[in-house]
Amino acid sequence: MMTINTASSDAGADRRTFAIISHPDAGKTTLTEKLLYFAGAIRLAGHIRSRGEHRRTQSDWLAMERARGISVSSSVMTFEHAGLTFNLLDTPGHHDFSEDTYRTLSAVDSAIMVIDAAKGIESQTRKLFEVCRLRDIPIITFINKMDREGRDPLELLDEIESTLALDVSPITWPVGSGVNSYGSFDLLKSKLYTSSAGRGGAYDRDLALAGLHDPELDRIVPPDVVSAFRDSAELAFSVYPAFDPKSFLQGHMTPVLFGSALKDFPLPRLLEVLAEYAPPPQPQPAEPRPIRPEETRVTGFVFKVQANMDANHRDRVAFVRLCSGRFRRGMRLKHVRSGRALAVNNPIFFFARERDLAEEAYPGDIIGIPNHGTLRVGDALCEGDDVRFTGLPNFAPEVLRRIRLDDPIRGKQLKRALNDFAEEGVTQVFDLVSGNGAIIGAVGQLQLDVLSDRMQSEYGIRVGLEPAPYATARWIRSKDESAFKLFIERERHSIARDRDGEPVFLARNAWELSHTQDKWPAIEFLETRERS
Ligand code: G4P
Question: Which domain of life is it from (predicted)?
């Protein structure tokens, strides 16, 4: 049995829990596997990737998972490096981009933002960044694909600075790009991350140099490339502020590394920056007070639930981020929502190389708790007084659809499936109080495609999605009880209840929403709702 760093302090001071955020195709998968490789967690880069319908990471194919017949397609990878334990939480991109992605970010203490050098900041990077900003999560920026022709490095930095309102501080600077890519130069340590096999080979060495003007550079790099590099690196040095770890920890400044996940440079340095500067577990926002990692009693919250991991048993795994205390297997924790005690006898740890039963876990660690639907996203587990974790929002859906069931006999299964998807955060479901059925809400079109696919493959239900007469939804509440009652009565045709029974106003268009808001000043219309 593998045990994890038992020398750890109880506050999880040696834990670094982070995510990689990016727009699809920027290189997150490639970078993930290379980081695991350079950290020594996997032997061969390249073998955890399988292309096809689903991109899966190594944890999917582990013997234990196979024996149990379950698979974790996007979850958590734990690895040890430089005396630290890293928990890398996957934020699904592409096909399953959903609230799940946002919520995962509530469970990390830092993030690496990957940007494609040819494309700059793209829409999904921006959305994910905004979520990080809500909690001022420190971000390390990796500008990827420097082995291809990309945009000018200075222009890219300006874009980050202006569109994300974030101070940038370059740590490494590219020496050429595309066919003229000669690696990445460390501005702080004066090292060139390059290839022992020359240009075109994998970048496997770091070369200590005496500054930007070291003649060794002229030996390796052709004159036009080296002089352009020196000019732009000098400019970068003079224009951008020096790296300030404090400002980084406050979420105001991002260190930037230019490189190539495919060609490996300067990935050892990226790991080093992560190890050196990424913060240990931070206090978690909660009521009645924030939870500090040093607290001795165990607390944690569910940030993700994955259902149907075992097709035969319809079990699910709740992913719990530990926030304080030292967790031991077999512990009884209070499930705050139900008030019941929960014996955590089979917690799961997510090692990059193997998945195993967790004996002990510390703040910052993630454990998987198999259950049959007891645990929901946002739920708190604790050893001491009741707490409620805040900051795990539901987002107002941007796409609303009516669901058409091809085989009406399967209404019950449909209900269960919709409930499961709502629990996983794939889609939301709103029951119209007028009794006219349910409306499905998603934060993006892709989720609806996922819903249809999974309905058929996992539940054997064929459904059609039809336009709903609504364009947007808002959670509603009011301090004025009688006004609230009157509002619900008058607007009955537009009122629904979400899965937790909370009232929602469905508007046909933006105009109707703003008109209704003006007409009912005593009612609050909310774009997010914290899970109860
Ligand atoms: P994602 O998880 O962010 O969606 O990106 P992923 O790593 O899958 O990378 C997307 C594509 O970009 C892949 O190419 C990958 O090989 C390529 N890529 C990633 N990093 C680099 C890099 O540093 N340099 C270059 N030149 N390419 C990079 P693909 O053609 O879609 O897949 P494949 O057939 O190459 O595997």
Answer: Bacteria
> Ligand 1: which of 30, 146, 193 to mutate, judged by most atoms within 8 Å of the beta carbon?
30
**Topology given in CATH for the domain delimited by 286-389:** Rossmann fold (3.40.50)
pLDDT at 357: 55
Say yes or no: domain 20-67+110-277 is CATH 3.90.1150.10: no
- What is the CATH superfamily name and number for domain 393-530? Peptide chain release factor 3, domain III (3.30.70.3280)
ipTM for this model:
0.97
The yes-or-no answer to whether 20-67+110-277 and 286-389 have a common fold is yes
Write down the domain spans for the chain. 20-67+110-277, 286-389, 393-530
Q: For residue range 82-95, what is the model confidence (pLDDT) as tens digits?
A: 999 999 998 765 44
| Ligand 1 centroid distance, CA of 25 (Å) | 6
Q: How far is CA 482 from CA 154, 322, 463, 489, 524, in A?
A: 58, 42, 40, 11, 14
What is the maximal distance between C-alpha atoms in the chain? 81
Residues 227-278: pLDDT tens digits?
999 999 999 989 999 999 999 999 999 999 999 999 999 999 999 999 999 9
User: Which regions of 175-312 does DSSP assign to beta strands (E)?
Assistant: 184-186, 191-194, 205-208, 253-258, 286-287, 299-307
pLDDT per residue over 7-49, tens digit each? 345 678 999 999 999 988 999 888 988 888 888 877 654 444 4
Residue 62 CB partners (closer than 8 Å, separation 6+): 354, 355
Identify the residues whose C-beta falls under 6 Å from ligand 1: 22, 24-30, 51, 93, 144-145, 147-148, 260-262
